[in-house]
């Protein structure tokens, strides 16, 4: 009888752990869906316009400040909030974030690299992006403009 009780206790503990993990995973993906949806909506207030031949994103300062680590750019829908379907990009290529009203870009150790004004960005080092500068992710040139 004692062995049977321990078996049920182990099952209950395992179930509680699985439920906790599922809840945290769900919260993570729900927060990234909010960013992904809001990045597609036009914004008329302060923020940034990020554009290239393939994409155009308008991101408000409120959106950038709401995300602690920043917004990831890449070609994986599961790993990145801003998606670009191009083989020269890594699944998680770069991250944009803000400190105050300034925008920063950080290469996430991508295979094909990132450049600002023809200067390579070292992996995991944040560099400030100024309005009008050109950023190249892989083979995709992008411009950043302050709204």
CATH architecture: Sandwich
SSE order in H/E notation? HEEHEEEEEEEEE
Low-confidence parts lasting 5 or more residues at pLDDT below 50? 31-44
> Under the CATH scheme, which class?
Mainly Beta
Looking at the structure, what is the overall shape?
elongated
Distance between the termini: 70 Å
CATH topology: Tumour Suppressor Smad4
Class from secondary-structure proportions = alpha+beta
In angstroms, what is the radius of gyration?
20 Å
- Write down how many β-strands occur, each being a DSSP E stretch of 2 or more residues: 11
Please tell me the total number of domains. Answer: 1
What is the makeup of the main sheet?
6 strands, antiparallel
Percentage of residues in helical conformation: 25-40%
Please report which band the strand proportion falls in: under 5%, 5-15%, 15-25%, 25-35%, 35-45% or over 45%.
25-35%
């Amino acid at each position: 009888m004692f062995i049977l009780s321990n078996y049920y206790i182990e099952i209950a503990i395992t179930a509680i752990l699985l439920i906790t993990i599922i809840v945290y995973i769900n919260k993570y993906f729900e927060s990234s869906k909010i960013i992904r949806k809001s990045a597609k909506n036009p914004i008329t207030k302060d923020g940034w316009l990020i554009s290239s031949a393939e994409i155009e994103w308008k991101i408000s300062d409120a959106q950038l400040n709401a995300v602690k680590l920043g917004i990831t750019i890449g070609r994986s829908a599961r790993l990145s909030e801003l998606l670009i379907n191009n083989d020269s990009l890594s699944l998680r290529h770069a991250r944009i974030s803000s400190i105050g009203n300034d925008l920063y870009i950080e290469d996430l150790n991508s295979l094909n690299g990132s450049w600002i004004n023809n200067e390579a960005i070292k992996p995991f080092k944040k560099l400030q992006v100024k309005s009008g500068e050109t950023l190249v992710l892989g083979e995709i040139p992008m411009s950043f403009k302050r709204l």
